[in-house]
Description:
The complex is a heterodimer of chains A (455) and B (585).
Chain A: H1 3-8, H2 27-31, H3 44-52, H4 85-89, H5 96-108, H6 115-121, H7 123-132, H8 134-141, H9 144-153, E1 192-196, H10 198-204, H11 206-218, E2 222-224, H12 233-237, H13 241-260, E3 264-267, H14 270-282, H15 289-297, E4 298-300, H16 301-310, E5 323-328, H17 331-336, H18 341-346, E6 352-356, H19 375-391, E7 396-399, H20 402-412, E8 415-417, H21 419-433
Parallel strand pairs in A: 1-2, 1-3, 3-4, 5-6, 5-7, 7-8
Helix pairs in contact in A: 3-5, 7-8, 7-10, 10-11, 11-21, 13-15, 14-15
Chain B: E1 10-16, H1 20-31, E2 36-39, E3 55-56, H2 67-83, E4 88-89, E5 93-97, H3 103-116, E6 121-123, H4 125-131, E7 141-145, E8 148-150, H5 152-164, E9 169-171, E10 174-182, E11 185-193, E12 199-209, H6 215-221, E13 231-238, E14 246-249, E15 258-262, E16 265-269, E17 273-274, H7 285-295, E18 307-315, E19 334-338, H8 339-343, E20 348-353, H9 359-374, H10 401-408, E21 416-418, E22 423-424, H11 425-435, H12 440-447, H13 460-472, H14 510-532, H15 538-554
Parallel strand pairs in B: 1-2, 1-12, 2-9, 5-14, 12-20
Antiparallel strand pairs in B: 3-8, 4-8, 5-7, 6-7, 10-11, 11-12, 13-16, 13-17, 13-18, 14-15, 15-16, 19-20, 21-22
Helix pairs in contact in B: 1-5, 1-9, 13-14
Amino acid sequence: xxxxxxxxxxxxxxxGLSADACLKCNVCNTVCPVARVTDxxxxxxxxxxxxxRFRLGALLSPGTGEDSVVESPDKTVDYxxxxxxxxxxxxxxxxxxxxxxxxxxxxxxxxxPRLRDWLLGQTDLTGWAGVLTAPIANWSLHNRLFRWLIxxxxxxxxxxxxxxFKAPPFRWRLGKRHRSAQLAGAPPPERAxxxxxxxxxxxxxxxxxxxxxxxxxxxxxxxxxPPQVCCGLPLISNGLYGAARGxxxxxxxxxxxxxxxxxxxxxxxxxxxxxxxSEYREMLDLDDADARAVADATWDICEFLLDLHDGDNLxxxxxxxxxxxxxxxxxxxxxxxxxxPALDLFALVPGLEAIDTDHDCCGIAGTYGLKKEKYDxxxxxxxxxxxxxxxxxxTEAACDSETCRWQIAAATGARLRHPVEILADAYRAADVAxxxxxxxxxxxxxxxxxxxxxx
Amino acid sequence: xxxxxSLPAQVDVLIxxxxxxxxxxxxxxxxxxxxxxxxxxxxxxxxTSGRYHGLLHSGARYVAKDPLAARECIVENRVVRRIAPAxxxxxxxxxxxxxxxxxxxVTEFPDRCAAAGIPCEEVxxxxxxxxxxxxxxxxxxxxxVPDASLEPWQLIEANLRDAENRxxxxxPYRQVVEIERNGAFISSVxxxxxRSGTIDRxxxxxxxxxxxxxxxxxxxxxxxRLDMAPGKGTxxxxxxxxxxxxxxxxxxxxxxxxxxxxxxxxxxxxxEISVPDPxxxxxxxxxxxxxxxxxxxxxxxxxxxxxxxxxxxxxxxxSEEPSGSDGREISRAHVVLDHExxxxxxxxxSIVGGKLxxxxxxxxxxxxxxxxxxxxxAPSTTAAEVLPGQGSERAYYWLGDRLSQHEATGGGDAxxxxxxxxxxxxxxxxxxxxxxxxxLDDVRRGTRLGMGPCQGAFCTFRAAGIVAEAIARRSxxxxxxxxxxxxxxxxxxxxxxxxxxxxxxxxxxxxDDAELAERAMVAFLRERYKGTRPVAWGRQLxxxxxxxxIYWGTLxxxxxxxxxxxxxxTAEASPRRxxxxxxxx
Lengths: 455, 585
């Protein structure tokens, strides 16, 4: 081998060794929403590529074997919210957030999970329990004594935004739609999409799922809702890699069947779709043909609708929605690397002025901001965003991610909606106004969909 | 604060060479009640000891070709683990049979280990791959042996401290320039302070040369002919540990067949090339390529991984018969040369050959001979007594140690001077207080400052600034040129001519500390760059450009005194502008 061959091949890919790419430039530290507001978190560079060199078994993925993972010596990595801004910002391509996530997983692997973290990870379990006992459960969530008790004894902050359960769950409202794990009897892939609703739309926000069905069906697609479990992201975030892998395998088994048959998989939870697209492979090491097929077939719903529009296949007969609407692009959406498709879609709605709040993170980061020791950090992270929305006097705002919606709603008092709900409104407005309403209107002003956070 | 140390006129034993062996001899003899002085022409541990691959041999590497060395290794491996646990990481070692390794060697390997007394256990390759996923999947057999990694500077420091507790001393930057004989007896030795140029004359009862690859020069000064066969070994430092276990190929030892995880890095070794002069050698491009190519047989993705630097050490090989043979053919076993029997010089011995793993045994055997000659009966106690600074729990060092200690004392990045290696402000202050005057390169050996991926890009200006601030506040005395960079000690300085121009300033001024900081910065970066240059591609090349941007772009070091030769290989500091100022059309 010549030196030229050695030089030519120099690049590192795997998460474990991607610390190799770090040039110590500090961009990650300057964009980190958490390090900005607290000294409890020493920053993504510190817990990421720097601490990585001090971790035994840096190449091993937590949860793959009982003896394979050694605890990371830096406990401060636990204060990483996992928002992933660092990974999107790193000019060298270090997988910082993924590295941190693995370190957190390693620190929890082999330990009995903390009750709180276990509970927060089991969104489908708590979802079912809550939906089945909705009146009592929802009463409890607003009961100050109950909240004090779970704050004191479980560690979920009494002020944290916990959403109300909505019975019956979305899956019980599917009507005659195809919902089998088997392809037999399903409408053909040219005319149908598979819908991944995730836990939020099933147990807490069935209206988001309903809006998605409405918009997809309006565009001529039949919607298939095959059996599915939690995508596993809350488990990954809480270090429960083994359980997450179990959920992932169950989802992959069903979804891969559809993906291979040419169906596209569309989701309204931008964090679920990101999990299907990349976390199964990157975080859970499920990098097989099934995982790749599902990743390739998965679309965030706004990404999907914008793609329809790019092919001139989107029904753009939107009615007027006269509103000034603050829009927050969640961190998870940014990690997709698809721009901010909701803003492009909003631009098609007459009368609608969507304003990019242009703030990186609302602070909640899934379940991070629910935790007692992190609640104040999460609120401080989101404070500039909350201020902006409050100062606009907006009563409604839009955001693609459910936990962000709950956080922003709790902090600002505004009603937070998924972009697809706004689009469903616009279609309904068109129906009310009759067929004469204008099909396309260029927006008066809107932010660039590709502007980076803080741009 | 360090008081200037003047050399004693008389000592029992003068030891020349501050590597592991010299430090071990200093410790051994001082424990037997002798008053000793050790001198080294550079900083302690900067010769071969500081430039080895970091392996505490189990001996398994030598079982076929050098069973005696193998046997010594396993005995001393156990001793070092016991007396210096804080310097040892118990990585364990693997000998793996790749498709390139001959079957008969692999088959005989366990028996040979057993014959040498080395515990060797065959382990399932599936288990090995689960723990070390970067290994070549076509490895078919694997054996576990008690290899470990060993940090040389801490080991040397601990030996010296034990000796200093017994009133013996070790002085860096003191070069032997003259040895005077009175017939068969060495009557005095002249030692130059390479930083100030001053020369002291010492009258030792006995002289021990532990100068390793440089032993021939010391012997020549004493009028004795000693032909060393220095063998250069080049190593590559990988940014991260792709393995937590020492991995060897199971074959007759050759180039690029061992990977040693040491602290935060992994070191791929080695080449073996004879060099005529232990001070003059370069790292050749083909050596780097060859190391990577061979290393890929162990770790197939090796060429994708980031190399921080290449370095070379010079083995102190010695063979009685000047055979001119390949360095790998010369025994790694050591020899204590009694110059009375060999050359008729009564109070002089040299210790040559050997390896770091057996440093203590070498020191003991050398000390035994010295004691026998000067009539001291006390036995060696170095194998039984634990070295100072090994911690109350006497636990092995582990990789996460420094980071977990930093976290335990508050963590955070505010106090980090070197972010890559987690060197904190208190750690730097402590080192400076104990070792001043010193260069930033000395600081590096003591703290690992600048040894991480950025190779000094982000810590050099911080450390230099801290030193300058300390001088300005007078918490460190106004330094001599030695802080910046000792002059190359290859040639003995001419007696009575002071070397440095900036010596012994009494009143520091604002300009002194600033100038010192600037010079220290440039000197350190130049030293770091030397090791990066042979591997400057991919990420490490980008990092070099980052460093260049910081020092030459932002800080403008080319305007500093001595900065024009910026160590980045361009003697011309800034490009000449062609065409003059931009002209309006």
